[in-house]
Amino acid sequence: MWILDADTAVPFWRPRQTIAPAVLLFSTRRGGVSRPPYDQLNLGRSTEDDGAAVATNRERLLRAAHLDPARLATAGQVHGTRVARVHSPEHHPECDALVTSEPSVVLAVTTADCMPLLYHAPGVVAAAHSGWRGTADGMPVSALEAVCTLAGCAPSAVQVAIGPAIRGCCYEVAEAVAARFPAEAVRLTSARPRLDLPTAARLALLRAGVEERALHDTGACTSCEPTWYYSHRRDHGRTGRHWGVAALAESD
Ligand SMILES: [Zn+2]
Question: How much distance in Å is there from the Cα of 153 to the middle of ligand 1?
Fold first, then answer.
């Protein structure tokens, strides 16, 4: 069960019950210093937003979660399914997911409609970026397998959280894209098919052995809630980016 602390200075989604020593969170667009159209907590450097504002926003979010901004590790995000094992704070260009067993390394993936996924198993955390292409190609299960390998555990020992993403209410796709997904993840009630990435991820993870009760979905649609989230599709590309963050914090 995940909750959004709406009344804090930097609101973010987190597990209702702390999973010590892990810190897992999904950011929103609130609580930062960026100006429109990147207002407020834009965390993406690949935008035309002021770089100093982005740096301030990143620091604000991580400090609010008691994480050290100097321990950040990021992924290049190339819409693939490769998972990089992270040993220290660094950037991994050719991957879409990060996994680590190192305490205090802060994993972050960047999204603004694509689905962020966070994983936790004893002694291991992971973060994945999964758009339609990555989800169709198996990113959710690739990251799960990387977690199980590193933790030496079965999929039934892994917790997975699905963050704010564009969903079946809003995400119109081409017929050829919809055809790559199970029928349960596609809605056919309007002119064009609409894709629900979280449903696709959920089905794949359950089939791979994750327990239903270990799958947590924020339920948030980035396109439906402009006061809370950036949406690349809704905002025609001129928008900010959220983070999905996972870390094994030493203590705070
Ligand atoms: Zn929606």
Answer: 35
Does the residue 54 lie in any domain? yes
Query: From the CA of 220, how far away is ligand 1's center (Å)?
Result: 8
Numbers of helices and strands, H then E, in the chain: 5, 15
Q: How, if at all, do strands 215-217 and 159-162 pair? A: parallel
Distance between Cα 100 and ligand 1 center (Å): 32
Residue 13 lies in a domain: no
Distance 33 CA to ligand 1 centre (A): 26
What end-to-end distance do the CA atoms of the chain give, in Å?
23
Centroid of ligand 1 to alpha carbon of 28 (angstroms): 15
**Position 148 in a domain:** yes
Domain count, the chain: 1
Mind listing the pLDDT tens digit for each residue in 56-114?
A: 999 999 999 999 999 999 999 999 999 999 999 999 999 999 999 999 899 999 999 99
Instruction: Note down the domain range covering 232.
Output: 19-248
Residue 31 lies in a domain: yes
pTM of the model: 0.97
| Tokens 């892990």 found at | 22
Domain CATH code at residue 229: 3.60.140.10
